[in-house]
Amino acid sequence: MSRQSLITVRDVMKENYDIVDGVATVRQALEVMRYVETKCLIVDKRHEHDEYGIVLLSDIAREVLAANRSSDRISIYEVMTKPAITVHPDMDIRYASALFARFHISRAPVVNGDGMIVGIISHTDMVMKGLMNLV
């Protein structure tokens, strides 16, 4: 594979994301959400040995809205997926896409070698920004 044909997660990820505390209510989390285009919230670690979580807007629609539950009484912890499957910024998007397919996910936090979130990636990002540039 030539270097020109390698497109990494870093090349196509979104650097803007929202991070919330798992004990926040769904309403509180949505009120502070600034980057709706990511369609998800990252749930912060509680301590250094904890893992990140993720909650998609579709999870909230299914678990809160469709179930006719109060967004003031449901915490993010109740609807999130934890641990979130994460990807490294230097991963080839073809491998990231295969990982997404294998685990039936649509987006994932991008975590650097220090364990810090540096972005978020989705199928849309990989296809629209990446696939068009692959040789």
TrEMBL record:
Cited InterPro entries: CBS_dom (IPR000644), CBS_dom_sf (IPR046342), Diverse_CBS-Domain (IPR051257)
Record domain CBS: where: 80-135
Record flagged with keyword Transmembrane: no
Signal peptide range: none
SUPFAM superfamilies in alphabetical order: CBS-domain pair
Keywords (A to Z) from UniProt: CBS domain
The protein's name in its UniProt record: CBS domain-containing protein
